[in-house]
Amino acid sequence: MDIPWLDQKLFSLGKFSLEIGEALSFVTVVIATFIISKVLRLAFNRIASKQGVIQHTSAYVIGRIIHYIVLFIGFIIALTALGFEITELALVASALGVGIGLGLQGLVNNFVSGLVLLLEKTVKVGDFVELNNGMVGEVIAIHMRSTWIRTNDNVDLLIPNSEMVSNTITNWTMSDKYRRFRIPFSVAYGSDKTLVKRAALEAAKNVQYTLNTAGREATVWMTGFGDSSLNFTLGVWVQPEQVKRPTALISDYLWAIDDAFRKYQIEIPFPQRELHLRSGFSTTQPTE
C-alpha cells in the first residue's frame, strides 16, 4: 500500500535527500539489529550450556563476536536503507577513516584492545585481577570500550580496554584458581621458635579452607630480626572460592594465630625503647 507521507523529504544535501520512509527504515533496521543480536546470543548461550562442550568463557567470547558481526551487517543494511550506494558507502568509510585519524583513535584503540582481550583470554570474565593501583576485583564483562571490574566492596570500575592490554595486570586466577597467601606475624625475642612454628601450623589447620594436599601444605618461614621481634611468615594454600576474598582471608588467619599464641602463651611483641642516663653532668648552678 502506497502511503504518500512516507515519500515526503525531510531535507536535501546536494544529490542526497532523506525521505521519511527511509528514516523510519533506518531506525527499524537499527532496532532490529540489536534485537537479533540479543536473540542470537541468548540462543547460543542456551545451546552451549545444554551441550556442555563449550566453556563459559569461550561462550562469552563467541557471543561478543556474534554481537559485533551482527552490528556490522546491520549498520551496512541501515545505510543501504537510507539510499546509499556501494560507492557512496566507500566515501562514508573514507570519511570515517578521517574521523578516526582526527579524534576517534582512542575509541578504535579500545575496541581493538577489547578484541585482543577476548581472543587471547589473558583476562576473562570471572577472573580475579589486581590493577596497578593495588585495587582488586572480579571481571564482570568486557565491553566494546571498557572492561567492567567489580571490587569486593561492590564498587564497579570501568577500565579502558587499552589500559588492560598495555599496563601490567596481575591475574590471580588466570590458569590455576589455587593460590598461596603469605601471612606475616611476629613474636617477642626469647620465644621458643619450635613452639611458634607448631602454633602457627595449628592455627592454619583450624581455618577450614586451608588446603593440605601433597605439595600444598602450610609452612612457616622465619624472615628476619625486627627491632623488638622475631619475624615469621605463614604460607598457606587456600580453596579457590576464598581467593577472591583476600581481606577476610588474612583476618581469619591472624585471628587463628592470635588464638594459638594465647593457648601456648607465646608473647606478641610491642615496641620497646630503653633510655640510658649518662652520669657526670654538672649539677652546680652557673655563677655570674
Automatic annotation (TrEMBL):
<dbReference type="Pfam" id="PF00924">
    <property type="entry name" value="MS_channel_2nd"/>
</dbReference>
<protein>
    <submittedName>
        <fullName>Potassium efflux system protein</fullName>
    </submittedName>
</protein>
<keyword id="KW-0812">Transmembrane</keyword>
<dbReference type="InterPro" id="IPR052702">
    <property type="entry name" value="MscS-like_channel"/>
</dbReference>
<feature type="transmembrane region" description="Helical">
    <location>
        <begin position="20"/>
        <end position="44"/>
    </location>
</feature>
<dbReference type="Pfam" id="PF21082">
    <property type="entry name" value="MS_channel_3rd"/>
</dbReference>
<dbReference type="GO" id="GO:0008381">
    <property type="term" value="F:mechanosensitive monoatomic ion channel activity"/>
</dbReference>
<dbReference type="GO" id="GO:0005886">
    <property type="term" value="C:plasma membrane"/>
</dbReference>
<keyword id="KW-0472">Membrane</keyword>
<dbReference type="InterPro" id="IPR011014">
    <property type="entry name" value="MscS_channel_TM-2"/>
</dbReference>
<dbReference type="InterPro" id="IPR023408">
    <property type="entry name" value="MscS_beta-dom_sf"/>
</dbReference>
<feature type="transmembrane region" description="Helical">
    <location>
        <begin position="90"/>
        <end position="119"/>
    </location>
</feature>
<feature type="transmembrane region" description="Helical">
    <location>
        <begin position="65"/>
        <end position="84"/>
    </location>
</feature>
<comment type="similarity">
    <text>Belongs to the MscS (TC 1.A.23) family.</text>
</comment>
<dbReference type="InterPro" id="IPR011066">
    <property type="entry name" value="MscS_channel_C_sf"/>
</dbReference>
<keyword id="KW-1003">Cell membrane</keyword>
<dbReference type="InterPro" id="IPR049278">
    <property type="entry name" value="MS_channel_C"/>
</dbReference>
<feature type="domain" description="Mechanosensitive ion channel MscS">
    <location>
        <begin position="107"/>
        <end position="173"/>
    </location>
</feature>
<feature type="domain" description="Mechanosensitive ion channel MscS C-terminal">
    <location>
        <begin position="182"/>
        <end position="268"/>
    </location>
</feature>
<dbReference type="InterPro" id="IPR010920">
    <property type="entry name" value="LSM_dom_sf"/>
</dbReference>
<dbReference type="InterPro" id="IPR006685">
    <property type="entry name" value="MscS_channel_2nd"/>
</dbReference>
<keyword id="KW-1133">Transmembrane helix</keyword>
